[in-house]
Each structure stands twice: as C-alpha cells, then as structure tokens.
Write a structure and sequence with these properties.
Layout (H helix, E strand, L loop, with lengths): L1 H20 L6 H7 L8 H4 L7 H16 L3 E3 L3 H7 L5 H4 L5 E3 L4 H14 L3 E4 L16 E4 L6 E3 L5 E4 L5 H8 L4 E3 L9 H7 L6 H4 L6 E7 L5 E5 L4 H7 L8 E11 L2 E10 L3 H13 L7 E10 L2 E10 L10 H5 L4 E2 L2 E4 H9 L7 E10 L2 H14 L10 E9 L1 H6 L17 E10 L5 H21 L3 E2 L13 H4 L2 H14 L4 H4 L17
Parallel strand pairs: 2-4, 3-4
Antiparallel strand pairs: 1-2, 5-6, 6-10, 7-10, 8-9, 8-10, 11-13, 11-14, 11-15, 12-13, 12-17, 16-18, 16-19, 17-18
Bound molecules: flavin-adenine dinucleotide and 2-acetamido-2-deoxy-beta-D-glucopyranose (NAG) (4 copies).
C-alpha cells in the first residue's frame, strides 16, 4: 500500500525532481566551481581531461585531490595509506591497492571527490567501518578509496531525541559518546562495526525486538548525490530516497550524516552459553521459542552458532537481555539446558560490544554467506545435521573454521519495518518469523579461496533445494552478510528492485553510483559470477 504511494508520488514529481537534482545539461566543472573548486587552477587538470586511460585518470584524480586537500590524500607506501589498507576486518579487503586514499573531514569534500571522479573517470569506493568482507566492497582497486573515518561527530539535538552521527564512527564510538547522557541508538552488536554500511543494509541490534532494525530508526540521512548536492532525506523530504536508503546499500549516494532516534541506554545482562552435541535439538527448540516469544518480551536478543573444533561439535547461544536481569522468563528454557560454560554477566551496552568484539577477530580471509527460510524446527535440525555432515570436506584447508549461525527475524522486527513509510527489504510480516541463517568461515591461504567458496556454495545448493521442496524457502538475502556471489537486491522482490532502479535513475541519471563505484551490491546482479 505504502509502496504504491511511493510509486505514484515518484511519477508525479519525477520530471521536476530529476531537473532539480541533476539537469540534463549538468556540467561537472561548473558544479565544482560552485563548491569553490576552480579546475583551471589544478595543475594535474590544466592540460585538459580528454581521452585519458583509467590509470592516467586516477593519477589525475589523486593529484587533483592532493592539490586541493594536501595531507588528507595518501598514496602507496605512506603511513596514511598503510594504516588504511592494514585495518580492514578481512584480509581480502586489505589486499586491495587503491591509487590513493582520501580522508575527507566535511561533506563538501565528499561532494568534491565524487565530482573529481566524474571528471576523470577514476572509480571510487567509500569505507565506514570496513567490515564488508570481500574484495573491493569498501576499497577501490586502482581507484580512489574514500575513508570516512574523520567524519566522526556524535551530537544530540536540543531535546536529545536524535543523535547526529558521522559515518566515520563505529558503534563503540557512538555508544560511548551517548552513554554519559544515558542514551543509545539502534546499532551494532560488536564494537568495530561501522555505522555506514550497517545502517544502509539493515542493521540487527540488541534492541531490534523493541524498535526494529537500524535502518528503521533513522530520522534522516544527509546524502551526497552524484551531482554533488547535499540533501537531507527523511520521511517527509524525498520520501522515495528515504525508503531506498533503508536497505538499498551504497547505490544512491554517500551518506555524510545519520540522524538516529535515541533510546535510553540499557544496563544489560548476557553472554554466551556453550552446549555439547547431545543438547543441540533442545537448543534449537529453545531458540525457536525465544523467537516466538519476542511478541511477549522484546528485551531478549539471541543468536546460536554451531561449529566443530578439534573434533568436538559445539553450540553457542549468545543470550542478551536489554535489562539487568539474570534470569528472565524468556531465557529460562535455555538456562535449563546443561551447558559446559556460561559467560553471562551484567554489562553496559559499551561493555557488551567490547566483549562481543573479541569473538570476531580481524586478520583472516573471511566469507559471510546467508540465506533465509521461514522458521521451522524440523528444517533447522535438518540443516544443522547437513552442515556437520559436509564440514569434513574442508578439513584439509589450512586454518579453516566454518560456523553456521541461526538468527530469527521476529514478528516485532518485521512489524517495525513498516514504520516511517516502510523499507526496501521486501520482507512480509504476515508470513511469520524468518530464519536468517548464515555461514561464517575464516581460513588462511589465498590458494584455498575457491575450495572454501565451492564448499559453502554446495552446502547452500543442498539447503535451498530442500527448502524449496518443503515450502519454507524465502528469497530474502541479508545484504550485510551477503557474499560476493549473491544478489540481495533481487531477493527484495521484483517490484522493490524495479522501484529501487527507478529511484536511482531519478537521483543519479548518469548512474555514477552504479558505474564509477562498482564495488559491493549493485542494483543489477551479484558482484561476482560464481564458477564453482
Ligand atoms: C564481526 C562482525 C560483527 C557483525 N555484527 C553485526 C550485527 O550485530 N548486526 C548486523 O546487522 N550486522 C552485523 N555485521 C555485518 C555488518 O552489518 C556489515 O559487515 C556492514 O556492512 C558493516 O558496515 P561497515 O560500515 O563496517 O562496512 P564497510 O565495509 O565500511 O561498508 C560496507 C558497504 O557500505 C558502503 N558504505 C559505508 N559507509 C557508507 C556511507 N556513509 N554512505 C554510502 N555507502 C557507505 C561501503 O561503500 C560498502 O560498500 C557484523 C559483521 C562483522 C564482520
Ligand atoms: C562546462 O563548463 C565549462 C566552463 O564553465 C566549459 O569550458 C566546458 O566546456 C563545459 N563542459 C561541457 C561538457 O559542456
Ligand atoms: C612500496 O614499497 C615496496 C617495498 O619497499 C616496494 O617494493 C614497492 O615497489 C613500493 N610500491 C610503490 C607503489 O611505491
Ligand atoms: C545488576 O543487577 C545485580 C543483581 O540485581 C546488581 O547486584 C548489580 O548492582 C546491577 N548492576 C547495575 C550496574 O545496575
Ligand atoms: C515462551 O515460550 C514457551 C514455549 O512456547 C512458553 O512455555 C513460555 O511461557 C513463553 N513465555 C515467555 C515469556 O518466555
């Protein structure tokens, strides 16, 4: 219903809108001039910009940015460059060599970088926390990597209902800044996850059963368009773009500020409870009951992870309560299952995300790869058995650790997705809770990449076939966990995909964010076609 109103609204304003955002005779040089950048004064651009190669284009782009912004631009082998390439979560992203790294500190510098990219044809990528795992997702091979790290403000509006958060923050810096005020936002569960990618793909928080996902709790976005304009985008201002940014990823602009609704900072209670194989069916039963009970008590958050370590199968339930209560009703069943260890304790939100960070170390080759199905106990048990039956296939891979993780997209989460005009994810609350399952796997050597990818792919082929034949398959793919072989936008459904493409055309008629920023999930297809 709401979607229909967005569609009709869009066609009503489309001509006017497109002209205002980027007229047909848009001139990049003049747009730069409006930002105070006179391209005739830039030595690298003095000889003109015709018929350049990509390499030359990027050399020109980086020299121009360095001329304009000095030490905010760094190139190969410098300390600034190495601190960028050396600080991603996955090794695959660390291996990427951009032509230069640009660290803007204000929104107009981001506009300038996008326009310089257009002028020179040099590609770019933007990075917030750098937690996307695959090559080129937030660093541009041979191009401009825009590191948003220095745009790290966290400020409150007068009545403290909205926190303005720069995309250079991670969730630890956001929660730490707000804690003295007794406040928090709907954000990530581990400290180093970036604000930037997390919100644009969805964002599952400890508070999501109470308030919804992170993308459903944004008062407004400040966005740099392909034409270098800086727009404030909310439910009232550019509502179609607001809808698109709630799940559409990096396809519509670079977000230079996230204005997030605040919530009271919680004193929490939780930790990991570890179980042996004999308890797995009971663990899955308890996990399902907690998902269904989200309608009764929204303070609980959980995921369960299963893995094989030194020949032993283990299950971990991360059980989090957003109040300082050690034994709430909703987790009683879990606590009655015998555990070999339990790290639960009272923690502030800041302490919680620091603790969870230690469970997810950086510095490995990594893949995250999700699918989704309708919540179903028999299927959950079957998929787990199938996982353990297939794990021996990668036993010889050096340093390998495959894990399967189960989470629930609960009814209250789904209902909150309809707030503020809805989001782009295409999830239907009327079908009941969704089982979000993903494989997370790390390993050591590049020479094993294909073996690992083929293993995960063959596992999911089997699971998807069974899900389809038993009627539980859900085409939704969570962008924030998706592998480079997947197409999350297609998983949002045909009508949402078509609408996202239409909105992208309105706000970015030359498709700059599709073509000059090719990394991560575009509107048309997976980043990489798998050859398994
Ligand atoms: C250890 C770990 C824990 C996690 N925990 C959770 C969790 O609790 N809940 C959950 O939902 N997900 C979780 N995730 C997944 C996480 O949400 C994604 O990895 C997400 O993409 C991370 O955002 P980032 O800013 O750090 O990533 P980046 O790699 O910096 O960005 C990801 C993509 O978003 C784009 N982007 C970033 N900033 C902007 C911007 N300002 N404007 C436009 N585009 C931008 C980038 O260009 C890139 O394409 C976790 C991941 C890891 C590795
Ligand atoms: C853009 O404007 C500048 C001067 O303002 C002009 O020299 C240039 O030719 C224009 N570019 C295009 C593509 O029209
Ligand atoms: C960076 O330094 C290494 C080692 O000193 C050198 O081999 C390499 O050529 C340098 N790369 C560039 C682009 O300067
Ligand atoms: C949490 O609850 C426990 C038990 O009731 C109490 O001892 C402790 O002081 C509480 N912690 C905080 C920070 O409120
Ligand atoms: C949760 O679910 C179980 C099983 O359906 C039920 O027995 C229990 O009372 C529920 N309520 C709460 C608050 O957890």
């Amino acid at each position: 219903m709401r979607l229909a109103s967005i569609v009709s609204g869009l066609s009503a304003i489309s001509g006017v809108l497109a002209t205002a955002i980027e007229p047909e005779d848009f001139n990049v040089t003049n747009a730069l001039q409006n930002l105070g950048v006179d391209v005739t004064k830039i030595p690298a651009l003095a000889s003109g910009i015709q018929s350049r190669s990509i390499e030359l284009g990027c050399s020109t782009a980086c020299s121009s940015l360095a001329f304009l912004f000095g030490s905010k631009v760094s190139t190969h082998n410098s300390t600034g460059y190495n601190s960028f390439t050396g600080s991603f979560w996955s090794v695959q992203q660390e291996e990427v060599q951009p032509h230069c790294v640009f660290r803007p500190s204000v929104n107009t510098e981001v506009s300038t970088a996008v326009l310089i990219s257009r002028l020179t044809g040099c590609q770019f990528a933007a990075r917030s926390g750098g937690h996307a795992a695959f090559t080129g997702a937030s660093s541009s091979p041979g191009g401009i990597s825009i590191w948003l790290k220095d745009m790290n403000e966290v400020t409150l509006n007068e009545d403290k209902s909205v926190a303005s958060v720069g995309p250079g923050n991670n969730w630890l810096s956001v929660y730490s800044a707000l804690e003295p005020y007794g406040l928090a936002t709907i954000g990530g569960r581990a400290s180093s996850i970036g604000v930037g990618g997390f919100i644009l793909g969805g964002g599952i928080s400890y508070h999501s059963n109470l308030y919804g996902w992170a993308c459903d709790n944004v008062e407004s976005f400040e966005v740099v368009t392909a034409s270098g304009l800086i727009l404030t985008v909310s439910e009232k201002l550019y509502p179609e773009l607001y809808w698109a940014l709630r799940g559409g990823g990096n396809n519509f602009g670079l977000v230079t500020k996230y204005n997030l609704f605040t919530i009271p900072a919680p004193q929490m209670y939780g930790g990991a409870r570890i179980f042996q194989e004999t308890e797995f069916p009971d663990v899955i039963n308890a996990w399902i009951n907690v998902i269904n009970n989200a309608t009764v008590d929204g303070h609980a958050q959980q995921y369960v992870a299963f893995l094989q370590s030194s020949g032993m199968k283990l299950g971990t339930a991360e059980l989090t309560y957003t109040k300082n209560e050690s034994d709430p009703e909703i987790f009683k069943q879990f606590r009655s299952i015998p555990a070999i260890s339990d790290t639960s304790s009272s923690k502030s939100l800041v302490e919680y995300v620091k603790y969870l960070e230690t469970e997810n170390p950086s510095g490995h080759r990594e893949v995250y790869w999700p699918i989704s199905v309708q919540l179903n106990e028999e299927f959950s048990n079957w998929a787990l058995d199938t996982f353990f039956a297939m794990v021996p296939q990668v036993a010889d891979v050096a340093g390998v650790q495959p894990v399967i993780i189960y989470q629930g997209i609960t009814e209250p989460m789904l209902k909150n997705m309809a707030n503020h005009g809805g989001n782009a994810l295409g999830l239907d609350a009327s079908k009941g809770p969704v089982h979000l399952m993903h494989i997370a796997c790390w390993w050591s050597d590049e020479s094993d990449d294909d073996v690992v990818y083929a293993f995960v792919n063959s596992f999911w082929e089997k699971v998807i076939a069974h899900a389809k034949s038993t009627g539980v398959f859900n085409e939704y793919i969570y962008m924030n966990y998706a592998s480079m072989f997947q197409d999350p936008i297609a998983g949002y459904g045909n009508s949402n995909k078509a609408l996202l493409k239409k909105i992208a055309k309105e706000f970015d008629p030359k498709q700059v964010y599709q073509n000059l920023q090719p990394g991560y999930f575009k509107l048309d297809g997976a980043p990489v076609t798998g050859d398994f």
